[in-house]
Amino acid sequence: MDIVLRATDDYFFTPYVYPQSWQRDDIWRQIISLSLIVNIGGYLLYIIPTTLDYLFIFDKSLMKHPQFMKDQVKLEIFYASKSIPLMGALTTIVFLFEVRGYSKLYDNWNDTPYGVFGMGLSILSFMFFNDMMIYWIHRFLHYRWFYKYIHKDHHKWKIPSPFASHAFHPIDGFLQSTPYHIYPFLFPLHKATYLLLFISCLQQPTLCSSSVSTCGPSRYTTATSACRRCCSRSSTAPRITSTTTSITTTTTVST
Ligand SMILES: [Zn+2]
């Protein structure tokens, strides 16, 4: 995130927002800047891909399904819009530790003894770590109290549209993103790789919410277990054919 913070400092915050006397490494300046970046970026990375997905990929015949709720798209957008600021606040805290140098992120591929090979290895290692942790966090969220108060809303959308991608309880959304944040504090990771993996992780739920077909290639990127869960839910959910209203499959998966 310090790549993004540096760029926004150079081209926006320093010339147009903050007084010249305010040092870039002041913690309060970093908190304000990161909050703005995370929240504005969060909304843009939610609404732009989901809108494109809804317009060009999402199978709209699913909206005729009996389990697709009245005004569901509006509800999904409203729910996600409410959750993003709190998810953003929690994420800002993690990014603050990162930009203040507490992580194992590095700038150049030759900063580690493994070079480019190490960068490739870290991507595989990240995918393994992320998938495994999300699986266990999701299982943990299905314990009674956590399910009732935190995770239940995640399963409210039986037939999700792309706009359900960020429609979590904010604690749920943040917890499911923690593997991504924890990894660079435990293992070395190139900063650019970290940024790309972050954007990939943000887009994963959108791809999974859109349709079964989009899950194909995304199975081989990050957050694959999360994707498979969504995909299995989508692929086994009751379907309606476009020419009739008969349900062709009646199996649903509740997890
Ligand atoms: Zn669940």
Topology:
Elements: H1 2-17, H2 27-56, H3 72-99, E1 105-106, H4 115-141, H5 144-151, H6 170-186, E2 189-190, H7 191-210, H8 215-218, H9 224-236
Helix pairs in contact: 1-2, 2-3, 2-7, 3-6, 4-6, 7-9
Bound molecules: zinc ion (ZN).
Domain Fatty acid hydroxylase: 124-200
Keywords: Membrane, Transmembrane, Transmembrane helix
Protein name: Lathosterol oxidase-like isoform X2
Query: Within the largest sheet, what's the order of strands?
Result: 1-2
Classification by helices and strands: mainly alpha
Question: What's the domain count?
Answer: 1
Characterize the biggest β-sheet.
2 strands, parallel
* Oligomerization category of the chains in this entry: single chain
Strand tally is 2
Specify the overall morphology: globular
Measured by DSSP, the beta-strand proportion falls in under 5%
Low-confidence stretches at least 5 residues in length (pLDDT < 50)?
211-255
Structure description:
With 255 residues, the protein is an all-alpha fold. It has one domain. The protein contains 9 helices and 2 strands; from the N terminus they run H-H-H-E-H-H-H-E-H-H-H. Strands 1-2 form a two-stranded parallel ribbon. The longest helix is centred in the N-terminal third of the chain and has 30 residues. The chain is globular, with a radius of gyration of 20 Å. Zinc ion binds next to helix 4.
Outline of the structure:
Helices cover 64% and strands 2% of the residues. With 255 residues, the chain is mainly α.
Keywords:
single chain, 255 residues, mainly alpha, two-stranded parallel ribbon, 9 helices, globular, disordered C terminus, binds zinc ion, Lathosterol oxidase-like isoform X2, transmembrane, membrane, Fatty_acid_hydroxylase
